[in-house]
Amino acid sequence: MLRLIHFGIRKTAHVTEFGIFSITVFRGIRAGRSGWKFNWAFTTLVIAVLYAALDEWHQSFVPLREATPRDAAIDAFGALLAQCFVWGYATRRRPFSAFFRGKADPAEKQEEITR
Fold first, then answer.
1. What is the pTM assigned to this prediction?
2. Per the CB 3.0–4.6 Å rule, which of 48, 77, 104, 105 could disulfide with 94?
3. Is 82 within the bounds of a domain?
């Protein structure tokens, strides 16, 4: 049981680590522009997958570590999952700031001000 928990924690860390890496790379590729474009996300995924493969190759030279394609695939999944979140965030219709203020549409807010 403990072995299974340890395995789950390690693999969740892989997904989280590469998710954060993927979001960071996406922001760098986007370079201050707003929105979401497929080629930005695709380039991000290619970079993340190549980095995952390079990391596994590096681990093959480290004593007491092993390189497995499964870990690279888990890393790639983390990057893909993060890009799904980025897409959802970048393409939603209502900005978070309006959501938290309680008004989703700026026209509604203007109407409230003019009353």
1. 0.75
2. 104
3. yes
103 backbone dihedrals φ, ψ, rounded to 5°:
-120, 120
> Does residue 7 fall inside a structural domain?
no
Assess if residue 113 is contained within a domain: no
Domain extent for 57: 12-91
pLDDT digits (tens, 9 = 90+) for 4-18: 999 999 999 999 999
Q: Convert the pLDDT of each residue in 64-79 to its tens digit.
A: 988 999 999 999 999 9
